[in-house]
Amino acid sequence: MNIANKISTFRILSVPFFIAALVYYTPEREYLRLIALGIFVLGVISDWLDGFIARKAKLQSKAGLILDPLGDKLLLMSAFIFLAPFSNFVVKFPLWVSFIIISRDVIIIIGALVIYMVKQTLDVYPTKWGKLTTLFQMLSVISVLVQYKNAAIIWSLAVIFTVISGVDYVKRGFEILYASDTRRSNS
């Protein structure tokens, strides 16, 4: 396992600790919010670092194509679930924000499984919309963890990019599936 994949694995293994800090947080246990923030910021840094190392050292691998987005999705989905209305935070995500962001990821995962079942292969590459979405989702989580009173501005942008990237990924998925069907019918 190369260093980039080890960094991605670290991000995946940090998720249960992040969730625990969010679940057990109360205003009397302010240190747990800071621990969650620290874990999340380390996750954001590790996301950038593993990609940078993989590109610069030419360590890109099939495992990395799975581990990196898996680490992102687990960290972000847990944040949008555990920072939702039932949390003990003052500034928290409205249910509709969490629903839109998680729904998009579920749709993308289902689409990827369908493409893999049909084509027996899956090339996972982020788009510019996907990267912008991840950036604004990460900023949204940080804004809630620091209890930024105007966090709604940031999470609104995250929702807009989430919808745009979701539509883009669905469109690309249908193009891949349609190309597959066209080749079969011409054989």
Summarize the structure.
The chain has 187 residues and is mainly α.
Describe the structure.
The chain has 187 residues and is mainly α. The chain has helices at residues 3-23, 30-56, 62-82, 95-119, 128-145, 151-186. The N and C termini lie far apart (40 Å).
What tags apply to this protein structure?
single chain, 187 residues, mainly alpha, Four Helix Bundle (Hemerythrin (Met), subunit A), 6 helices, globular
What's the topology here?
Layout: H1 3-23, H2 30-56, H3 62-82, H4 95-119, H5 128-145, H6 151-186
Average pLDDT for all residues: 90
| Low-confidence blocks of residues | none
Range of helix content:
over 70%
What is the assembly state of the chains in this entry? single chain
The fourth-level CATH homologous superfamily is CDP-alcohol phosphotransferase transmembrane (TM) domain
Sheet with the most strands, sense and barrel status = none
Strand proportion, as a percent range, falls in under 5%
Number of strands: 0
Query: From the helix content, strand content and strand pairing, which structural class follows?
Result: mainly alpha
- Please give the domain count: 1
CATH fold field value? Four Helix Bundle (Hemerythrin (Met), subunit A)
The global form is globular
Helix and strand pattern? HHHHHH
CATH architecture: Up-down Bundle
Distance between the terminal alpha carbons, to the nearest Å?
Answer: 40 Å
Number of helices: 6
